[in-house]
Amino acid sequence: MGLNYRVINVGSHANPPGDMYERYFPKDLRHLAPRLVTRTFGDDGEYEAIELEGEYIRQMSAQVGLDRTDYMNIPFIRSFDEGVPGQRDPAARLADMDRDGVDADVIVHPGYPILLPKNRDTRRGMMMAFNDWLAGFCAHDPARLIGIGEIPVWDIPLAIEEARRVKELGLKGVLMPAIPGYVGAWSCPVDAPYTSPVYEPLWSALEELGLVIVVHADAAAATPGLENYDEPSINMIINKTMAQEMIASLIVRHVFRDHPGLKLVCVETGVAWMAPLVSWMDVLSQEHPSMYPGMTEKPSETFRKHVFGSFLWDTIGVANRETIGIDNIMWCNDYPHNYGPFPNSQKQIDKDLAGLSEVERHKILAGNAMRVFGLSDS
User: Fold this and answer.
1) What's the pLDDT at 361?
2) Where are the alpha helices (DSSP H) in 57-179?
3) Do 266 and 312 contact (CB within 8 A), yes or no?
4) How far apart are alpha carbons 139 and 2 in whole angstroms?
């Protein structure tokens, strides 16, 4: 049954229970599963933490319902059950969405804590565990809870296998790193650039399955020492634009031309940077056509068919909607992270979309997401 979608949040997260990995890890990899433990951290006292490869990682309290007045000094939470229940309880999530005037949430990755296993089998098991947990979470109301799975992109056969499982689980897309070789917070480092033909079987599989490629605002500073958000004041300035490399790679290497069913959504990246990107690609392809053999249309035309982005606050992007494409812009609120507008999203929407027609508002707030993620209206 369809839903009368008015506002779709294309960029939110779920923070599963601390013992998710122990409960959902695939049996053949269970010996590698991160464990929930209670541990004393110096004078700070006892905290729940995730034990992973000999390290103990606490969860930061940057979630709705927890005090976070100083982003440079975010405290840790004592228990993974702290914060709003909607992080991990689908019924509570729907209640929060109703309170905020949101009809559907597109949910990507498990947020904090930042877990960076060195062992790729461990990372693959974490992805599979999260996919299973998220599928169960979204099954509570599939019309309103839209899950994005994760795949081990460094191994194409395994990535395709997990993509097929993601489809069977009812999830709508797969998360991929904006910059394949990036090592840092929330990243999934892989071994080849997206210009490599090694990905061809994966592009074909994702197109066949109808799964949306999703990039989140993850990769940021490339300088060693800054990559793990130790300097969030720097990382959060630049992390929005990193998807440009992936977009340029897929357009220049004709991935979208050869796979017309593929769609790429840049979640929580904002969209203002897309205006100079599409304009500059058109200039280069026109002025230096020998660098771009095989182009059958302007890069901006390819972009508008295949690439989309969502924003929290972006009046500049909205002002440049004709250059970017009104059909390519979506909205998000980054729930449950408490620097987003929840529970006052409607006020923020009215501010950011002031002066737009009802047709334009509907496209940004719901229509574009409905088309890209295959959601049916009632």
Assistant:
1) 98
2) 90-100, 120-138, 156-169
3) no
4) 15
**Contact (Cβ atoms closer than 8 angstroms) between residue 94 and residue 22:** no
Report how far Cα 228 is from the mean position of its chain's Cα atoms.
17
- Structure-token pair, residue 121: 């089998």
Report pLDDT for 33.
96
Kindly state the DSSP code that residue 366 receives in the 8-state scheme. I
Query: SS3 helix, strand, coil % of the chain, rounded to 5?
Result: 45, 15, 45
| Residue 17 amino acid letter | P
For 218, which DSSP code? -
Supply the pLDDT for residue 70.
62
From the list 188, 187, 317, 210, the residue with the least C-alpha distance to 260 is 210
- For 78, counting Cβ atoms within 10 Å of its Cβ (0-12 exposed, 13-18 middle, 19+ buried), the class is middle
d(CA 115, CA 102): 30
Q: Please report the sign of the dihedral spanned by the C-alpha atoms of residue 135, residue 52, residue 65, residue 72.
A: negative
Parts of the chain with a pLDDT under 50: 1
- Tokens representing 79 are 């228990």
pLDDT at 1: 46
Task: Give me the pLDDT at residue 184, please.
Answer: 67
Q: What is the distance between the alpha carbons of residues 136 and 126, in angstroms, rounded to a whole number? A: 16
Output the pLDDT for position 110: 79
Q: Which domains are present in the chain?
A: 8-19+83-373 (3.20.20.140)
